[in-house]
Design brief:
5-stranded parallel beta sheet; alpha/beta; Rossmann fold; 360 residues; binds 3'-deoxy-guanosine-5'-triphosphate; 12 helices; Alpha-Beta Plaits; 6-stranded mixed beta sheet; binds magnesium ion; 19% strand; elongated
């Protein structure tokens, strides 16, 4: 295999066109812009290399092959880049480097690697012995190439690394989608029942520890059967999505909302005492009732009834007792005319309530 001269001016191949080179070839900017948007960004490669000659040689090769090189001239600089959250995953390490050497970098990368975050390491070195190769692989390298290298060989090994990293990215995103599907409601996108119950149990534990209250709201759409019967199930689905959206839009980051049942929602408001919980529930109720829900050219006026309950800062309230209290509040809200918020102290008749303008 013929060796290329160490330093040369390279032409940019068609597979790695930049906006500038496209313009040079007379393509219209508009088409180029669209293509740039569709192309996946070039994979970034960290190159730890102290020789200026090899830095330029490897850098030029990588750019020609559609990669985006990030150069580090010593081991310390390389490690700084690798510790960033957006560090390149494909890594090309010289062995002998000022500061940390390539083998130490391999060890550190492997020690620091977390789940779903694999780096593919190629050691590119002048050391040609089998013993050294074994040492590098045992330190965590995935591949080993001896300098001076053949370009096609380096390109081939880089494409293997890229293929493995692309595959890993697909697996991670498939796992994330599965995790999301298992914890979220498919229709509304909010937490599913199991997950919102787990969130509630967690919040109660935390509140007990921090001696803070937790408010909950059980919200149920009024006469939802009528909505389905009058406008069809598809409109009903859209209404459910919109109610979930309106509920979610008013939450703070540490609040949670989940689909508790068919047309019932559970909201968790950490740190909210009874008065705050009632005020926030009434704000949500108004936010849903104030504008009709429109989907597929059909508009329907949707209201919700709500029962609230609060686990006090003294602790000792369990999930079941809290939900039972909110459920009794909800029952009372329905009984008292719907589109309203109720809180029922114990099982007595003492109530706090807020209601909308119209009764149903
Ligand atoms: P109330 O004010 O007493 O709560 O009356 P309601 O009609 O809302 O209550 P009911 O329990 O009689 O009916 C609930 C309805 O919610 C019936 C059911 O078909 C509908 N529902 C539950 N889940 C879904 C869903 O995912 N999509 C649609 N479109 N409807 C649903
Ligand atoms: Mg070196
Ligand atoms: Mg219901
Ligand atoms: Mg209902």
């Amino acid at each position: 295999m013929g060796k290329r001269p160490l330093l040369c001016v390279r032409s940019i191949p068609v597979t790695n066109v930049t906006e500038k080179s496209r313009a040079k070839r007379g393509q219209s900017k508009k088409i180029a812009d669209v293509q740039v948007m569709l192309e996946k960004p070039a994979m970034r490669v960290l190159v730890a290399e102290d020789s200026v000659i090899y830095q330029r040689l490897v850098g030029n090769c990588l750019r020609d092959w559609g990669f985006s090189p990030i150069m580090a001239k010593d081991g310390t600089e390389a490690w700084q880049v690798l510790r960033r959250p957006d560090a390149p995953k494909l890594v090309l390490l010289d062995w002998v480097l000022p500061g940390l050497d390539g083998i130490e970098l391999c060890r550190r990368i492997r020690e620091a690697s977390s789940e779903g975050c694999y780096s593919y390491i190629i050691v590119l070195t002048g050391k040609s012995g089998q013993k050294e190769m074994l040492e590098a692989m045992q330190a965590g390298a995935d591949d080993y190439i001896v300098k001076p290298f053949d370009e096609p060989a380096l390109r081939a090994r880089l494409s293997v690394g890229k293929r493995i990293l692309d595959l890993q990215e697909e697996l991670v995103s498939a796992r994330e989608s599965m995790r999301h599907a298992a914890t979220h409601d498919g229709l509304t996108g909010i937490l599913n029942r199991r997950e919102v119950m787990l969130a509630l149990a967690r919040e109660l534990e935390r509140a007990k520890r921090d001696k803070k209250p937790v408010g909950i709201i059980l919200a149920d759409i009024d006469h939802f059967k009528n909505v389905n019967d009058t406008h069809g199930h598809l409109h009903g689905d859209e209404a459910l999505k919109e109610v979930a959206h309106r509920l979610r839009s008013r939450l703070r980051v540490y609040d949670a909302v989940g689909r508790y049942g068919g047309e019932e929602f559970l909201l968790i408001l950490p740190g909210c005492d009874l008065m705050n919980t009632i005020i926030r529930a009434d704000d949500l109720r108004t936010h849903i009732a104030c504008l009709p829900i429109t989907a597929s050219k059909i508009s329907s006026a949707i209201t919700v009834s709500m029962g609230v309950a609060v686990a006090s800062e003294a602790g000792g309230t369990d999930v079941e007792a809290l939900l039972g209290q909110a459920d009794r509040g909800l029952y009372l809200a329905k009984k008292n005319g719907r589109n309203r918020v109720e809180h029922l102290e114990d099982e007595s008749v003492a109530t706090h309530s807020r209601s909308g303008t119209k009764e149903h």
